[in-house]
Automatic annotation (TrEMBL):
It comes from Sutcliffiella cohnii. Gene3D superfamilies: 1.10.10.200, 3.30.70.980. GO terms for cellular component: cytosol. HAMAP family: Transcrip_reg_TACO1, Transcrip_reg_TACO1_YeeN. This is Probable transcriptional regulatory protein BC6307_17475. GO terms for biological process: regulation of DNA-templated transcription. The lineage of its organism: Bacteria, Bacillati, Bacillota, Bacilli, Bacillales. The keyword Transcription regulation applies. It comes from the Bacteria.
Amino acid sequence: MGRKWNNIKEKKAAKDANTSRIYAKFGREIYVVAKQGEPDPELNQALRFVLEKAKTYNVPRAIIDRAIEKAKGGGEETYDKLRYEGFGPNGSMVIVDALTNNVNRTASEVRAAFGKNGGNMGVSGSVAYMFDSTAVIGVEGKSADEVLELLMEADLDARDILEEEDTVIVYAEPDQFHAVQEAFKNAGVTEFKVAELTMLPQTEVTLSEDSLAQFEKMIDALEDLEDVQQVYHNVDLG
């Protein structure tokens, strides 16, 4: 896969550490998936996905509970799930996932974030075909060989298993997310460094110093938008 997952996640976590933005985004997503299905994660797979990811970002329990209670109470807010695709400098590709209660506002803001930072929006399908939906699960305290063995014992396949510093990262098919987690839990794992569904690029591009600075400014502008939940891209951040 080639993704330096820890570096990417740590950079994002450091950026979000001084703000409540990441919590607000999780609160919105939890509310939406809990309202669309059962507010019980045991009965709502989409909610289980979000809650597992929230744990790895240390989202406070109070925020999770508040969002679920709001959904249980029949909150009147409704959101549309949207995906935008676009391009940055020198062949860089970007996918933007959003939850919005105002489609026109969000489209305008996303388009502006691209345009003001050297990028441009593309049509649906212009970028997504270069990415693969992937389950990414990371644990500490085990070697890649140990992880491979426990997955084999559980009769599970992985796209890739990589050791990145003190973490072993498993890249698997999206529908294997919970099965891989259960295999780890059965082996005594109680905490996950990474546990989420993401979009990984099939290939990465390397940008010059100037282009990279411009690209990161564009990504920051997109991530700063209230309606944007997640931004994926194909740039090697080093």
